[in-house]
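Aggregate trends can hide what the representation actually does to any particular protein. For completeness, the protein is quoted in full, as a sequence line and a line of structure tokens.
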Amino acid sequence: MKNITRLIFLVGAILFSAFTMAQSTVTGTIIDAEMNAPMPGVNVVEKGTTNGVSTDFDGNFSITTKSNDAVLVVSFIGYLTQEIPVSGTSNLGNITMQVSEFGLSEVRIIASVAVDRETPVAVSTIKAKEIELKLGNQEFPEILKSTPGVYATRAGGGFGDGRINLRGFSSENVAVLINGVPVNDMENGVVYWSNWAGLSDVTSSMQVQRGLGASKVAVPSIGGTINILTKTTDVEAGGNFYTTLGNDGYRKLGVTYSTGLFDNGFAATVSAAKTDGDGYVDGTEFNALSYFVNLSQKFNDQHTLSFTAFGAKQRHGQRQNRHLISTYRASESGIKYNSDWGYKNGEVTHIEDNFYHKPQLSLNHYWNISEKSSLSTAVYASFGSGGGGGTRGENKFTNPAYRIGPLGPVDLDRIVDENIANGAEGSESILRASRNDHNWYGVLSTYKTDLTDNLVLLGGLDFRDYTGSHFYEVTDLLGGQYWADNSDVNNPNAALQVGDKFNYYNDGKVGWLGFFGQLEYSKDKLAGFVSLAASNTSYKRIDYFQYTVDDPLRETDRYNFFGYQVKGGANYNLTDNHNVFANIGYFEKAPGFDAVFINFNNTEINENAENQKILSFELGYGFRSEKLSANVNLYRTAWRDRTETRTFQLSEDETGFANILGVNAIHQGIEIDFAYRPWDDLTLTGMASFGDWRWEDNIENVEIRDEQQELVDTVDIYIEDVHVADAAQTTFALGLNYRVLPRTNILIDYNYYDNLYADFDPSDRGDETAPEAWEMPAYGLFDAGISHGFDFGPFEATLSARMNNVFNTEYISDALDGTNSDAYTSLVWYGAGRTFTVGAKINF
């Protein structure tokens, strides 16, 4: 018996020894070749097994292989996959990951991408992998909703109608750059996300730089900068097919193909997608066809040319008009209620809609002049065509008598019958479009040279030329023979047909010329910069309807506004774990186009329009360790002389205006965010943002002037200590990303919003006793998603599912303040209830 026991023990010892000897522990650090920075979250898997780990926040990994001789597969979306043979226990040291997109490093230079623990700004970066997991059928700006300082909503709920506020500033004061090219409207600064439908499909990364930002171009952003980098061309050949289905008929089908980088230096990537659906909100059906093309040619080690074209032709119904809460509750559709659509000949017809096509074309040249110097230049153009729908004539569209049932859709057939019966007298009511076409050309060039090993000089120019064409267009006579119009002095008593212009027709011409220079210092633990920029903004207006062809007033002079910005900052890495940074900046920004040309004509010129003045500073602290990454930022932005004008009806035939100076606001707060990885398969994220955004002072004796610039009256504006509205000042977020299996991830996100006030116009507050704007109810939302990857024959496939607002929480996301500043008189938009998508993707 003893011999048998000894034999069993001996065999077990031999087997255990053999198993132990077969295992090896391999360690290493993954480094981004372009940024020379550690890469967290990189997958390291033993080939042919499910044994894998991912790198920590410092890029480190440790894996115990099942075989003494193994191959490690190192992979991360956007980077070339590597296979590394290992034998026995070893430390591989630094493993450098190369980006899988040819030319991406050059785009990063133009786009001024911030680097962690080096660039002294508050920054959050979202990669393509995270966008793919979180987007679903959300609006593109909603991807950023778990970012400190961000408030993003779907606004009216139509496809592409989303909006975003950053640190309490709306899109007019948040610079949005795509591959370093500014896309804010040149006349009013607004970003229309519907113009960029499909952008999420080709985004390589999206970086939010809060506050001053790292942008080197002369873009004066007050709230911050949203820096979007699209795909360039893949180094390796291949592509993918994908399809997504969702609630309310959501359908998306897309394809991407890349040739890979040929030996002659040429590479190409093309992508296209079709998206359509009924829309979550009533009467918001949509369709979009998006496309992306990138062609790159590397001629030698010095020169690379890259051509990019992308855009989307889209049309979607809109919910433009907000309603009382009681109206939503009385309607059959509840929070989906929309009054801006109807039926015509049995088909849905959008009374309010948006249609636009804005191709963006750019030709980039990258020149490595020497080992120390380079020049990156982008020549770009965009051609926008489209606008938004609406009505004209007798206001039958809001008359309850023309509704199909109480609070139902509009009975357009009845209007058609009445217009037909009107015969030769023409239509009484029609549908029209407010067109905003444009042609936009620009050049952006950045020169970089290493003055010393530690000092870098950058400089360049930013030139833009923009012409926006604005007019009403007849889109549907609704059965009538014509539309009678006398708005064009050159064509009075016109009988208009579909496609004809009416009501107004003018061009806005905007010129921009900016120069910038920046010194960057980096040595050991210290990195810093000083930046100077100057720009001239010019405005000119041409009116084709209010003045005859030979009238000298038909075309105005150019009105110029000189702006500049000075900013600087430094980051100091106290240890390998702790860093601190600070930045400060001052800039002046030109007033908006409409602040110069009051009341939309060429005679009432606001000669007293002034630049907006902004002073901002920030302090930050960062912590990085193997398992925890955290940041704390304190900021204060003082906004002086915000562009604010107001018109007054002085008599039946005359209007007056007030150029209101001294509309000042203070935006200050604290932001905290973290990511914690208790083990390789689990990442917990969170953020908290506490803002205190208020209007600063009352304004007394504001002058009202008539069309002859004569003083006719004064008004007072009472805004002192009133909260800035239209964005949640307190936000929280918690997130979980759990890798259940090597290729299966579960995501759960929770977002909470509080201290959110209904929107109002500061210039309307003429009553000293008026209360604050209505504070909307706080709300919290849960989102969840799952992604599973598997082999599908010779291909890699991914199945995914996403659900937003899991518990179908009812909440108000947007509101206009009412007469009593309360829930009973304010006009609101409800946010979306529970929505979902399921999708499949095959890589080849």
Remarks:
- The first helix runs from residue 2 to 22.
